[in-house]
Amino acid sequence: MIGAFFALTAVMAGAFGAHGLRNLVSERSLDVFQTAVSYQMYHAIALVLVALLAGFGLSRRLLGLAAGFFVAGILLFSGSLYTLVLTDIRWVGPVTPMGGVCFMIGWILLLTAGVGQQTNQERG
Fold first, then answer.
1. Where are the alpha helices (DSSP H) in 54-94?
2. Whole-model pTM?
C-alpha cells in the first residue's frame, strides 16, 4: 500500500511539474523536480517489489529494513528536492544526499536478502 501511495503521488507530482510549474520555475528547477519524481517512482516500485518478495521466502526482517530505508530515501531525497524547487528554503539541500544514502542502504539490504535466500536454497 505504501508503494502504491508513493507511485500515485509521483504521478501526481510529475503532472504538476509538467503542467503547473512550467512557467513558474527555471528549466534547471524543472529538471531537479523531475529527478525527485523519477527517484520517488523508482523506489515506489521497489516498495511494491519488496512486498512481493516477502512471499518468496526472503528474510522479512531484511525486507522490512529495506522498505524502511526506501521510504526514508523518498522522504529525504525527493522531499528535499521538492522543497528546494517549491520554496526558498535552502537549508534542506544537504538533506538530499542523506536520502540517496538511504536508497543505497535499501538496495544493499534487498541484495542481502536475495543472496541469503539463494544460499539457503543451495543448502536445502
1. 60-73, 79-86
2. 0.92
